[in-house]
Design goal:
Length: 365
């Protein structure tokens, strides 16, 4: 029968005064031995410690540092009331030269700021002067534009309302040349006075050699009317009467029937064509064009010699026109003894539009 395992228990030396054995465990192994309890020995009285006088400032410290701890330090600790980093009343490690440099930089920055501020004030003053001048120029331009519009409205009003030669001549271009044309036109189609209402279109016309405006005027009794106005000077404006009525030197149907051989300038539309007949049957010699006028469906066929100025000018004109139609004043002539019933010779491209920029009576041969 195996022996029961030994158990541990806490022994109180004062409480238990028995003679029971006590088992002491060895440091290694599982064997144990029984030893006799020793009687308690009297503890010797601890020797008295040398006490120093208490310090009020360090009452919380329980142990004073040894002398060797103080002697081992390289330098004496700083006074707690001395600011950190100060050595003998100045910042430690910061030379006086940096203070001087910083002060110089601050002074220079202040001077530069003052100079820039003064320059900025001068610049602002200059800009204000420029803006003021621009505003004055804009105001002057606005007044001039307003005066021009007012003048154009007055001229258009007088032109549309005119029903006599005396009333219309002061407001038309080239009055000396167009006066007999107006008189001739009014014999066939008398002028009817119209009541001007307002301008609906007012835009510049890209016509070299003058200052022109395209105008559309609304009337109270005759619908909208299209006009070309020339500006001479600030307020001198005149209406181009010939383009307003699309003046022709002769009635188109009568011209086709009578076939006069003298050259006349017609306002026509010209497009390339290939109708060759009679005296114009040689395509290697002639360039062919279809010729029409406004308000008529009857066409003529115009011919220009191949390589002539007229043929070259028309070819260049067609290149610039997306629809291949030239709106021009062309000098037409029926050839003497010609057999082609509708064939005419184009002697000259007078104007690349329906308006004379300069007076044609002064340079016509």
């Amino acid at each position: 029968m195996s022996e029961p395992d030994p158990k541990l228990r806490v022994v109180d030396d004062e409480a238990e005064k028995t003679d029971d054995g006590v088992v002491r465990l060895k440091a290694a192994g599982t064997s144990f031995e029984q030893v006799q309890r020793l009687a308690p020995q009297e503890v010797a009285e601890a020797p008295a410690r040398l006490e120093s006088e208490p310090r009020d400032n360090f009452g919380g410290r329980s142990q004073e540092p040894g002398v060797e701890a103080i002697l081992d330090k390289e330098e004496v600790a700083e006074n707690v009331e001395q600011p950190w980093g100060l050595r003998d009343g100045r910042l430690a490690g910061v030379p006086y030269g940096w203070f001087i440099l910083v002060m110089v930089a601050v002074i220079v920055a202040g001077v530069w700021a003052v100079i820039q501020m003064r320059k900025g004030e001068q610049h602002v003053a200059q800009r204000l002067a420029v803006v003021r001048d621009m505003n004055e120029d804009d105001a002057a331009e606005e007044r001039a534009a307003r005066e021009l519009v007012d003048r154009i409205e007055k001229v258009v009003h007088d032109f549309l309302a005119a029903d006599t030669i005396e009333k219309i001549l002061p407001v038309v271009r080239q009055p000396d040349r167009v006066k007999p044309l107006i008189e001739e036109e009014w014999k066939v189609r008398p002028k009817r006075a119209m009541k001007f209402a307002r301008l609906t279109t007012f835009q510049p016309a890209s016509i070299a050699g003058g200052n022109f405006w395209i105008i559309r005027a609304e009337t109270r009794d005759a619908g909208s009317q299209n006009l070309i106005v020339e500006q001479n000077g600030d307020t001198d404006v005149r209406v181009d009467w010939e383009t307003f009525v699309c003046y022709q030197p002769m009635d188109w149907d009568r011209y086709r029937t009578e076939r006069p051989t003298n050259a006349m300038d017609f306002r026509v539309w010209v497009t390339p064509d290939s109708f060759y007949s009679h005296e114009f049957s040689n395509a290697g010699r002639w360039r062919c064009y279809r010729v029409n006028i406004r308000d008529s469906e009857e066409s003529l066929f115009g011919y220009a010699p191949v390589g002539s100025d007229v043929a070259r000018d028309l070819d260049e004109f067609f290149k610039r026109e997306p629809d291949g139609k030239a709106t021009i004043i062309a000098r037409l002539r029926f050839p003497a003894g010609g057999q082609s019933p509708r064939g005419v010779v184009i002697d000259k491209l007078v104007e690349p539009r329906w308006m004379y920029v300069t007076d044609p009576s002064k340079d016509r041969p």
